[in-house]
């Protein structure tokens, strides 16, 4: 690709609003995001080729970010900044910011263009195209979910992935030995991107994808349910999961900012769940829970 101008867009916001703001950027044409987690603020960076009329999208994006406060999300400054650049090619911009990430003992996320040699025989490599969907493993909520899956899966499980995004959690579960996985997202574009990543990792025989709102209309019973979504959506999801888990099944939740942790634990308790593991990274929590056994 020849040298070309490109525009950097930065949103200054809070940890709590990272995923919601990132989704807004995707809906307006962003093909990936980079997250800079600072002490006071979080910067979400994305890039547009100069021939994309990003300036025309800014007022709508700004309004949608402001509207997040109606859902109880603190957006902080919620400020959008634009900067024109010429130094690198469009492809180089993305390749500069996405490098292999060793998530845990067994899991490593690698950009699709990288040639990567596993450091040990039991390392599971997840290839993702980060230009296609949010969910590259950079954000702490994704990393907490991956750690929880690694702790929970033993092989042969059935699983539901609610709000799959890029498909990263389903792909990880498949490589950790889950037998059958149904992954859903309310966004059809996310499902299309997830399908590409599933094929890239050659796990399409284990994973089926579909557009769906939470677990509405889903009647399957499985061994594991995982959801890395905003607390506002976890609250209505939790009651739906109680009839969709096999005995001894596990519920894995992430996307829980510190201020919402007690609320989510309370909703779990109200629905007869027992918290088995509470994972923390920065201001974020992940939870592994199991339905309490009846006497």
TrEMBL record:
The keyword Glycosyltransferase does not apply. Transmembrane segments: none annotated. GO terms for molecular function: protein-lysine N-methyltransferase activity. S-adenosyl-L-methionine binds at residues 142, 163, 185, 228. It catalyses: L-lysyl-[protein] + 3 S-adenosyl-L-methionine = N(6),N(6),N(6)-trimethyl-L-lysyl-[protein] + 3 S-adenosyl-L-homocysteine + 3 H(+). CDD domains: AdoMet_MTases (cd02440). The keyword Methyltransferase applies. Its EC number is 2.1.1.-. GO terms for biological process: methylation. Keywords: Cytoplasm, Methyltransferase, Ribonucleoprotein, Ribosomal protein, S-adenosyl-L-methionine, Transferase. InterPro entries: Ribosomal_L11_MeTrfase_PrmA (IPR050078), Ribosomal_PrmA_MeTrfase (IPR004498), SAM-dependent_MTases_sf (IPR029063). It is an enzyme of class 2 (transferase). Belongs to the methyltransferase superfamily. PrmA family. Methylates ribosomal protein L11. This is Ribosomal protein L11 methyltransferase.
């Amino acid at each position: 690709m020849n040298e070309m101008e490109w525009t950097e867009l930065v949103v200054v916001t809070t940890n709590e609003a990272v995923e919601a703001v990132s989704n807004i950027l995707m809906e307006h044409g962003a093909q990936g995001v980079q997250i800079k987690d600072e002490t006071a603020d979080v910067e979400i960076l994305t890039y547009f080729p100069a021939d994309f009329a990003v300036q025309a999208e800014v007022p709508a994006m700004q309004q949608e970010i402001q509207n997040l406060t109606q859902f109880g999300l603190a957006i902080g400054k919620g400020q959008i900044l634009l900067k024109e650049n010429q130094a690198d090619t469009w492809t180089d911009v993305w390749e500069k910011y996405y490098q292999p990430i060793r998530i845990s003992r067994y899991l490593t996320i690698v950009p699709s263009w990288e040639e990567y040699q596993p450091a040990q025989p039991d390392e599971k490599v997840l290839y993702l195209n980060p230009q296609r969907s949010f969910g590259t493993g950079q954000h702490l909520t994704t990393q907490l979910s991956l750690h929880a899956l690694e702790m929970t899966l033993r092989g042969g499980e059935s699983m539901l992935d609610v709000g799959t995004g890029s498909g990263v959690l389903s792909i990880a579960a498949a490589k950790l030995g889950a037998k059958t996985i149904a992954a859903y997202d309310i966004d059809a574009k996310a499902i299309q991107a997830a399908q590409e990543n599933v094929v890239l990792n050659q796990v399409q025989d284990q994973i089926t994808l579909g557009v769906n709102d939470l677990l509405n209309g889903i009647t399957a019973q499985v061994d594991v349910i995982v959801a890395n979504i905003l607390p506002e959506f976890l609250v209505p999801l939790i009651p739906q999961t109680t009839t969709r888990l096999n005995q001894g099944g596990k519920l894995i939740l992430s996307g829980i900012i510190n201020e919402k942790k007690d609320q989510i634990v309370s909703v779990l308790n109200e629905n007869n769940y027992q918290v088995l593991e509470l994972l923390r990274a920065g201001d974020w929590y992940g939870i592994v829970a199991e339905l309490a056994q009846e006497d």
